[in-house]
Amino acid sequence: xxxxxxxxxxxxxxxxxxxxxRIAVIAPHPDDETLGCGSLIAAGADVAxxxxxxxxxxxxxxxxxxxxxxxx
Length: 72
Known about the structure:
The chain contains three helices and two strands. By secondary structure, the chain is α+β, with helices and mostly antiparallel strands. The mean pLDDT is 78.
């Protein structure tokens, strides 16, 4: 059986040359950065997160999640 190297872990890939430098994550509204790039952020990458809106318009007319509650 050939001697194979184990597959690199996600954390190893973050530290590799491909991920050197700062990574910008641009999210349309709060929580999208977590949903889309949570593993990247949790793995310790040098990440700058830019959130474009405050999310208050994500559920228009919602009684359960009115705009003021989402803004908080």
